[in-house]
Amino acid sequence: MNKSYPIKRRQFIKLSSLALGSSLFTACTQSNSPSSSSESTEKLDKIKFLLSWKAEAEYGGFYQALATGIYRQHGLDVTIQPGSPQTNTTQLLMGGVIDFTIGGGIDAIKAVQEGIPKITVAAIFQKEIQVLLTHPGVGNDSFEQLKGKPIYLTIGAYYWQILKTKYGLSDDQKRPYNFNVSPFLVDKNSAQQGLLTSEPYTIEKEGGFKPNILLLADAGYNPYAFTIETTKKLVETNPDLVQRFVDASIKGWYSYLENPQPANELIKKDNPEMTDDLIDYGLNKLKEYEVIISGDAKTLGIGAMTDQRWENLFQNLVAVGVFDANTDYKQAYTLQFVNKGVDYYQNS
Known about the structure:
Elements: H1 9-15, H2 18-21, H3 38-42, E1 45-50, H4 60-67, H5 70-73, E2 76-81, H6 89-94, E3 100-104, H7 105-113, E4 118-125, E5 130-134, E6 151-153, H8 159-167, E7 174-176, H9 182-186, E8 191-195, H10 199-207, E9 212-215, E10 225-231, H11 232-237, H12 239-258, H13 261-270, H14 276-288, H15 297-300, H16 307-319, H17 342-347
Helix pairs in contact: 4-12, 4-13
């Protein structure tokens, strides 16, 4: 079935420049993959996979699939490219510079509103790992207790609308967060945003104390996170390729949770700033809070998604004005490539 997916003119103008910038996409990780002859490599389907940040434990399953040859077993020659805040992953994806990227549930629905034909094919994280952090022992142990307190946030944080509505918080509490924990450390009555796997570690090292962790998922903000995104065109024209990439990535995650060492070596090569201690911290937090294997993933397998979960996310954000109620949010995802059951991924 052939379909055309119109892109708005302004988006097309932006995307049309990508051909000129494709040389910026450099393959740094593939050189770390298991060695092979050029003949065997040519028989594999080449895949460019862009992360949303530098190599770290949050991408461990993908690196594991590369390090242990799982991708190759599925007929894939995968290049993993770390990203940065300045990387426009959607532009690179729609411009054909990359084949898959890391995404998130909210941005996927936002893309539908903007007419961008990308689609979510798997959800690695069943829980949102964004958190608010507070100082211990000062009475800021819950979201309800944050009324009137300074809160360091990045601009445009979607979850803020939910927190305001649910807990009676106000915009005058917001302070700009520039990925520097120093203002938070100075003001014991403040809170700051962070990732479960990162900022608590930094605060422990720099501040000498363990912060309270308030998981935004517990506040009702729980979109699918660290999802795998691709184009609708690829899903329709080559579903077998998409299936093999999703299956291999999921199997990589099961392998990583069991024995992370192969992936960790590649992670440190791609990101020399990453230490064993920080990788272990991140992985342990993912396990402790059941970020990857919880809810539907316990029976349907890592990567699981359901229509009900997507609908709940959409309705919650419509209620606080983030999305237009008329948005066809079901265009943001497909269940075609996931939910095969734990045995399928562990034993096949």
